[in-house]
Structure formats: structure tokens, C-alpha cells
Amino acid sequence: MRKRVVRQKLIKKHLKRKPGLPPGSLIRQNDNSQAESRLSYFLYNQESIEEKHIHSLSELPKKTKEKLFWMNVVGLNDIELLRDIGKIFNLHPLLLEDIINTDQRPKFDDFENRISLMLRLYDSENNEMSIEGEQITLVMGEGFVISFLEKPTDIFEPVFERLRKTSSGVRSHRADYLLYVLADLIIDHYFVFIENLGVRIEDLEDSLFTESNESNLEKIHSMKTELLSFRRYVFPLREAISQIQRSNSTLIEPETQRFWTDAYDHVIRIIDLLENYRELNTSLRDIYLSGLSIKMNRIMQLLTIISTIFIPLTFIVGVYGMNFHNMPELEWRYGYYMIWCLMSLIVIGMLLFFKRKKWL
Fold first, then answer.
1. β-pairing verdict for 144-149 and 68-74
2. Is 152 helix (H, G, I), strand (E, B) or coil?
3. CATH 3.30.460.20 region(s) of the chain?
4. Model confidence over 175-219: pLDDT tens digits?
5. DSSP label at residue 323
6. Sheet of 107-110: strands edge to edge?
7. How many beta carbons lie within 10 A of that of residue 240, not counting itself?
8. CATH fold for the domain made of 2-290
9. Are 156 and 38 in contact (CB under 8 A)?
10. Residue 42 pairs with which residues in a beta bridge?
11. Distances in Å between the alpha carbon of 100 and those of 25, 97, 108, 112, 279?
């Protein structure tokens, strides 16, 4: 049922697209985003930093070569605002279109004097993650970085804290290093999610060994859906990071490439863990089916033992229920009690035999 609801949501999301529109058309695809966009920026170098929340683009400071500029945009419903940001920072229309359409797979694009990296952020604080996740787009140009988020989140708070410290290494590097720091922070959140997922799988495995019920089967299918969704966005991320490593863009310094190599290794580790958990989730279904089979075998064994015990008893009762006249036992004073004793001995003897065979 849950898988069907998720599938219907994804279909509705894609059906909002209108065919025949020219490339670069800015059409809002997701109505769940924040209604009003929030803007904030950092303007800094090694010696000083300026941090401010603004209400319009007219409050943006003048960019200088001496300072690095980072603007954080939260909420993607204001199309005119995004179009104005594109004009101010000379962003390609296709890039703006990808920012608006929040169902993009992770990818890296090089627009000569602008590069972009699209990633997916999952809620790793809760035990159950959002199936679709949240798209985060990072755009970098000479001396600036812009981050576009669908909704408010504290994902970048550790970077904010690092920038506020004078001794921070982030403030002594160029924009390409800030781009790496933001991307690496999102990738690190994948490890948190993967660890939570591992705990959930272990708990479910323990539950399956104690009891196999329909609720556990539903959890297995739900986890399978989450794993497939996560896999859909993690595998393209490997290719996106690899493209950054192979990029000849002048915006990325050679010494920063070493950090992207480390990020690529992290993605590979995440993929390995993901594949392991997918195999483990598949084995959970086998464990569930085995548990059902064992449970059914125990029930059949119990019913068979009961039937086996009652077969001789039914035979004895059937014989003395025929009401023939020439049956001496019927006239015996202790015949009734002897039949009960005989049937009791048969039951006790059969139970001892089954116990000795370890069938009980």
C-alpha cells in the first residue's frame, strides 16, 4: 500500500510538466516548497566576515576580489526571484530550470564560467527517512557560491560555525573549497542515515527470529522501497564526483582535487554499505518466509500428534459402539472402567514415545 502511494506521488510530480515548453522554461513543479524564499549571505576573507539575512536582492553587497561571497537561498517557489538571481550571477537558463525541477538526479554541470552540483539530502535524524528526500543545488562562479534549498534546514550550520571562526581553514581558501565543504557535509549525512538504517535492519532481524507477522513483512517492503530510492540518488552521485575530478574547469584548483578524491572514496563506501544492506534486506524476507514455514510445521506437527493419539482411541470406541449382543465385555461389571484405563495407558504410552523421539 505504501509503495503504491509513493509511486502515485512520483507520477503526479512528473505529470505537472507540460510538454512542448522551450528549454530553460521556469515552471514551478513542487508546491510543497516554502511559500516565501529566505535569503542570507556571507561575505568574508581571512581577516573579516559579514553575515546578514536579507529580504530582497537589492540588499546584496558589492562583490570584491578580496572577499568570497556565499548566498544561501531557501525556498524555490518565487520564480521571479530565481530569475533575478540568474540575471545577477549570469546563470544559464537550463541551470535555473534544473533548480526549479526538484526531482533531478545528482549531477555535475560545467557551464564554462559557472559550475553546478546537484545533490540529495535525506532526513537522517528520524528513524524513517523521506522517500523523495530534498534537492540541494550548489552553484559556483569566480569568487562566489550559491546554495539553493527546497525548505529550511540546519544542514549547513556546522559550516556557518566554521566561517565565524577567524582561524577556520575555509576562510583561507577559494570558492571551490567552499563548494567541496558543502558537498562533503551532505555526503557525511549519508553515513548517519546508513547507520540508522543498519540499526533498523538489525532490530527487524531480531524481531523476525522471535515472531513472523504481517507487520514485519510490511516493514521489510517499506525498507526495500527506501533502499531503492536511496540507491537511485547515490549511484549518480558517484559519477558526478568523478566528473568533478576529471573536470578541466579553471574554477577548480588542482590542490582541491585531492579533497574531491576523498569525497569520491566516501561515496564508494556508502554504495558498498548500501549494497550490503540491500542483500541483508532480501535475506530478511527469506527469514520471514522460513519463520512462517517453521511455524506452520509446528502447527501441523501438533495436529498430527493429536490425530495420531486419537486414532487408536477412536478404534476402541468404534468397536464397542457397534451394539452386538454377543460381546461379553458389555456384561462385565468393570468393563467400562477397564476401557478407560486401557485408553489412558495408550495415551500415556504414545506421549512417552513422542517425547523420546523428540517430537514434542
1. parallel
2. coil
3. 2-290
4. 999 999 999 999 988 888 888 888 888 888 877 777 767 777 778
5. -
6. 49-54, 38-44, 68-74, 144-149, 134-141, 115-121, 107-110
7. 19
8. Beta Polymerase; domain 2 (3.30.460)
9. no
10. 51, 70
11. 10, 5, 16, 21, 35
SS3 track for 84-96? HHHHHCCCCHHHH
Cell of 165: 571562526
The CA–CA distances, whole Å, from 94 to 24, 27, 91, 278 equal 5, 12, 8, 35
The enclosing H or E element of 345 equals helix 335-356
- In angstroms, the CA 119 to CA 241 distance is 10
Q: How far is CA 207 from CA 2, 46, 289, 297, in A?
A: 21, 54, 13, 20
CB neighbours (10 Å) of residue 305? 15
Query: Across 7-11, 99-103, 113-117, 335-339, which has the greatest mean pLDDT?
Result: 113-117
- 266, with CB counted inside 10 A (0-12, 13-18, 19+), is middle
- Read off the pTM: 0.75
Instruction: State whether residue 200 is helix, strand or coil.
Output: helix
Please say whether the beta carbons of 188 and 180 come within 8 A: no
| Residue linked to cell 549518480 | 236
- Length of the chain in residues, anyone? 360
Higher pLDDT, 157 or 205: 157
Find all residues with CB under 8 Å of 39, minimum gap 6, and list them: 53, 54, 55, 56, 57, 71, 72, 73, 74
In the DSSP assignment, the letter for residue 330 is G
Cα→Cα distances 122→56, 171, 187, 230, Å:
29, 28, 10, 9
Q: How far apart are CA 209 and CA 346, in angstroms?
A: 37
Residue 115 · residue 140 · CB < 8 Å: yes
DSSP assignments along 255-297, one per residue: GGHHHHHHHHHHHHHHHHHHHHHHHHHHHHHHHHHHHHHHHHH
All three cell numbers of 307, joined, read 490425530
Query: What is the C-alpha separation between 267 and 264, in angstroms, rounded?
Result: 5
List C-alpha distances in Å: 304 to 309, 311, 344, 348, 354.
9, 11, 19, 16, 11
Torsion sign across C-alpha atoms 251, 255, 256, 257: positive
